[in-house]
Structures are given as structure tokens and as C-alpha cells.
Write a structure and sequence with these properties.
127 residues; mainly beta; 7-stranded mixed sheet; 4-stranded antiparallel sheet; 0% helix; 48% strand; globular
Length: 127
């Protein structure tokens, strides 16, 4: 079935930046709509950012707009989340997700829409 492996998480101070990566081992990565979600302790999994198959469309939750940037490199089977101006409220486990959909210029916002998930990477932001 293939795997999604996140990396790049860790401990950061408020105001700092981190870049998360999601490496996919699955065939035809460019056929998948991709997304980033996060889950803080005691909270539901939350959509953070999504990107269409070619990267021509992206979307973000309001709380990260202007601070986070999602991108993908289909030649490298990798998706990224550049996070800047981090705040303690960004502390969570971050998951990447993939959805096999024959749809162009579409971003999926809901977790049930995704077919595959990574194991997650912890991001902790201290004040």
C-alpha cells in the first residue's frame, strides 16, 4: 500500500520556524491530493493545509494563513509544510495524508476524505 513518513518536527521557541516533510513511497505520487493535519492533546484532528495534485491550488486553516506554506515536489514524492512565526498554539502532532482522487485543482479539507496517513511528527513550541 505504500507509506507516508513525516519528518522535521521537534522543539522550537515561539517565533521560530520549522519545515516538515512528508515522504511518500507510493507509486504515482502526483495522483494524490495531499494534506497536513494536526492533533493537540485532548483535541480533535484539525485540518492545517492542503494541496492539489499539481500544486496549483492550496488552502489553509485561518489560524495558520500567512505563517505556513504547503508545497510539494512530485518528482521527489515529497510534500512540505514550511511553518514560520510559530506559537505555542501550534503545538501538536502533525500528520500528512493522501487521497487518491482523479480531480484536478481540488483541495480536500476533511480528514475522512483522505485514504492514507502517516504516523505523525511532534511539534512543540515553547513560549
Amino acid at each position: 500500500q505504500g507509506q507516508l513518513v513525516e519528518s522535521g518536527g521537534g522543539l522550537a521557541q515561539a517565533g521560530a520556524s520549522l519545515r516538515l516533510s512528508c515522504a511518500a513511497s507510493r507509486h504515482a505520487f502526483s495522483r494524490y491530493i495531499m494534506g497536513w493535519f494536526r492533533q493537540a492533546p485532548g483535541q480533535e484532528r484539525e485540518f492545517v493545509a492542503g494541496i492539489s495534485r499539481t500544486g496549483d491550488r492550496t488552502d489553509y486553516v485561518d489560524s495558520v494563513k500567512g505563517r505556513f506554506s504547503i508545497s510539494r515536489d512530485n518528482a521527489k514524492n515529497t510534500m512540505y509544510l514550511q511553518m514560520s512565526r510559530l506559537t505555542p498554539e501550534d503545538t501538536a502532532v502533525y500528520y500528512c495524508a493522501a487521497a487518491l482522487r482523479d480531480l484536478d485543482s481540488v483541495v480536500l479539507l476533511r480528514a475522512p476524505s483522505y485514504d492514507y496517513w502517516g504516523q505523525g511528527t511532534q511539534v512543540t513550541v515553547s513560549s
